[in-house]
Amino acid sequence: MATREEVVTGLAEILEEVAGVNPDDVSEEKSFTEDLDVDSLSMVEVVVAAEEKFGAKIPDDEVQNLKTVGDAVSFIVANS
Amino acid sequence: MTKPDVVVTGIGATTPLGGNVASTWDAMLAGRSGVSKLTQEWADQLTVKIAAQLAVEPSEVIDRVRLRRLDRSEAVALIAAAEAWADSGLADAGLDRERLGVVVGSGIGGAQTLLAQDDILEASGARRVSPHTVPMLMPNGPAAFVGLEYGAQAGVHAPTSACATGAEAVAWGLDMIRSGRADVVIAGGTEAVIHPLPIAGFASMRAMSTRNDDPERASRPWDKGRDGFVLGEGAGILILERADHAAARGARIYARLAGAGMTSDGYDIVQPHPEGTGAAKAIAKALRDADVAKADVVHVNAHATSTPVGDIAEIAALRSALGDHPVLTATKSMTGHLLGAAGALESIATILAIRDSVVPPTINLDDPDDALTMDVAAHKARPLQIAAALNNSFGFGGHNVALLFTRP
């Protein structure tokens, strides 16, 4: 069971790989689209990579609720 | 109605000979080959184990994150377009983007993406297929990415006619400007399919050279020992501009794109007409379109891919449409065959031949075919004053495109 901090670190690695986001910029209050400039296609990549990394299933209709890094962390912690 | 003059004000390329136009042209004039052995593991099982691979990898030019959303054919198109755009000086010219068009084609398109994503689909399932797959493999992808990069709004088009694509794109660009739909067109071709499947396909047709032990001598147009083409990769891009538009901004002009001729053989899906009648008609149309006399066309950058039938059919076409006087060259002897990019890259070579008064060499022409009855700049570059020069491109499907460039 991953801690919130571990999930943030893992998401930061994924965001760097697929979207070139600086890991130092990734924190729970940041919005994927507005703060981190992750477009919709890259968000799909982030979700698939996160499912693989954390063993959580993130349904498509849930993705739209994941506005911030913290939203994603909460979902992953609760569902992995 | 008089046709407005169209000129070339920028050129860009990334090729097996160099990562830009200058290095490519220097290598051509020096007669260097860009062909080498394929060292990738997948080449072991192929009958063809040579290719003309890019001199400069796109990863040296485009950042990693951007590159992973681009097919290789799109990446090289963007690299060549960036050079051509910078070369034209249009970035600071206040160009109305509603008057900027793009015509960039590819012979095969995003096949590397298609095949790589199919591997993922088979191995890991549908959910793992990249969301960037479609914009990476769609045949209009290179044109669309170039259009997006420069904000082109006059229309973005992606002709496809196999190995005539690059030349056809230039011809359509000419048409866009003449018909008043654009003042400036970014035109050219791109190709990047050095991958086992396309190679196996061409090899199964017996279209490719299997001179695996002597890669630099494998592409040998018009030589008796020729045994097929050598696959190359890269892109060539030209900036076409209405002449008065270019003059008004004091642009440097490389050459006039005086005319174009396009025909189709209606003969066979892959074999050229043995007498080159469709090709001859394309050349004749280009001459009429340009209103240039045969005698003024003193140089031809031939399609000549190093295949037994095609090279000689082109000679028949040239003799009937132009006569015996032009000095020919086949730069594919050095670059390999860039398929959909070939016509654009060879247009650039033709333009530079006019500018520098020199015909680049045809290397490996050691033992000319008896049917080669025209003068070729064999082995070494040849100084020549060129008023007008022709560039031929032909493609599977029976496509014939002839482009006529003149000194500005």
Automatic annotation (TrEMBL), chain A:
Where is this chain primarily localised?
Answer: cytoplasm
- Gene3D superfamilies reported for this sequence: ACP-like
One of the record's GO molecular function terms: acyl binding
Q: How is it modified after translation?
A: 4'-phosphopantetheine is transferred from CoA to a specific serine of apo-ACP by AcpS. This modification is essential for activity because fatty acids are bound in thioester linkage to the sulfhydryl of the prosthetic group.
Q: Where in the cell is it found?
A: Cytoplasm
Coiled-coil residue windows: none
Q: What are its GO cellular component terms?
A: cytosol; membrane
Q: Pathway involvement? A: Lipid metabolism; fatty acid biosynthesis
Role summary:
Carrier of the growing fatty acid chain in fatty acid biosynthesis.
Protein name stated in the entry: Acyl carrier protein
